[in-house]
Amino acid sequence: MQPTNIEHIRHSFAHLLAAAVKKLYPKAKLGIGPVIENGFYYDFGNIRLTDEDLPKIEEEMRKIGQENNVFQKELWTPLKATAYFTKKDPQPYKRELVKDLKKEGTKKVGMVAMGKVFLDLCRGGHVKNTRELPLDAFKLTRVAGAYWRGSEKNPMLTRVYGLAFSTRKELESHIAILKEAEKRDHRKLGKELELFAIAEDVGPGLPMFYPKGAILRRIVEDYIVELQERKGYKPIWIPHITKGELYKTSGHLDKFDALYPPMKLESETNYYLKPMNCPHFMVLYKTIGHSYRDLPVRWTSTTTNYRYEKSGELFGLTRVRALTQDDCHVFLRQDQIAQEINLMLDMIQETYAKFGFKDFWVRVSTRDPKIKKKYIGDEKIWNESEKALSRLIEKRGWKHQIGEGEAAFYGPKLDFLLKDALGREWQLSTIQLDMNLPGRFKLEYTDEKGEKQQPIVLHRAILGSTERFLGILIEHYAGAFPLWLAPEQIWILPLSDKFAAYAREIAQALVGTALRVVVREENETLGKKIREGELQKIPYLLIVGERETQSNTVSVRARGKGDLGQMNIAEFLKKVEDEIKMQINK
What we know:
Radius of gyration: 29 Å
Strand content: 25-35%
CATH architecture of the largest domain: 2-Layer Sandwich
Number of strands: 28
Shape: globular
Strand order of the largest sheet: 11-15-16-23-20-19-17-18
Number of helices: 18
CATH topology of the largest domain: BirA Bifunctional Protein, domain 2
Structural class: alpha+beta
Largest sheet: 8 strands, mixed
CATH class of the largest domain: Alpha Beta
């Protein structure tokens, strides 16, 4: 009978992968082999593999899988496990793991045998027998490099990734999605559509934007700025570096592990590139007095932060070292929490609808009760904050889950996860309820009795980061942005130099209505210009020649629809204005 626990299936495939690699490459050293989303991986040392080696490894996995290999777990003492990984099967990485488990006070470690072909250090969670594995429902996908235990100070290992599902149909469906995702890859489209580039001369994780990409990010950021100001938020500006003392006060110096090394700009004073904006907002609030009548104080700043993310974790625009946040901090009284969070929830919902994201859910991120030292603040305040956030989401009836251990170190938060056109989930917006940092910065306001009180702070970002949002947006639309969002909305294609003046005349009329227009006057054939316009995913191509010049019209081609025939400028203008209005207001 086929097992139904997909976690056990995937974990068992990881063991099968390690067994096959050991059989084919006896000198390989074993790292770890966990279950991941949609599959598994295993890390190997002392071995070099390429994607061309994967079919051979898959074949060996199927051979071993067809044998009667029963999974059996035993509990060994750390001493016995260390001896085994020293003499019987020398495995330095396994010895290191056993040593760490022993330091943590573990009396017995799990050793899982897969028949007589493989024995591994493992907590367990497998099928009973390799014959139960759906051997037609897995596939090795790629080889990558990975530092041992994620640290750049450790050796680089070879990581082999695999997919695994309960049935072949599920596997084939997922592979089809991956192929579509490859077409939509924002890194590929970013280059093809001339949106952004990441150059080694500047540095990894530091994207630069071409004119079209800069226009796209301006459209997105301007929308958020306008939305916020319409809702009563006021802009501020903050610098990009600060004294290290600021982060001592906030707690980031001890708790945040992605700070760039300090710069000594003055004698005995360390300065840091800011990895977040909260402390600057706190200090600015403190520089002027506040009454209860002033609250809520809603301040926002679209500003770039700098985080030293590990090079192995960087990925296009979705994981960068320079990230621009539409950051907002609201200073408020306790009786204003619900109204202010509801205002933020309305804004997030409106933004997602605007950009075409319909399916999302909310993670209520709370503390990990087992690691309380990871967080700052009073136990009672944490409990009250976590309950307050849960109640607000429950009242709206939105899909939500509790994310234990996902809170920020200073307070619980709401994290928004949305699905794109391929059904993939991305984390974007966040709202954080903070009753701790105001105390650390000694923030105050004067209440109606003339007494000093401590405000509560809400941290909020709708886009999360502009760069990440753009990466997701590019993939969601596969680069074919709706008309209102397209950085270049219209190309005008004169048939020859003879009609260039008429093309420029039309462009001038359209630019005057705030449309984004490009005249393609290159000495190329019309067919080539049309093909390039289609590859560049331009919403409208306007062709002008003798007939159009004499009749004061344009021949219109629409993306995905082809030739729409001739129109005069007034007709075409009404068409695109109606289309934009419909897209904006839907």
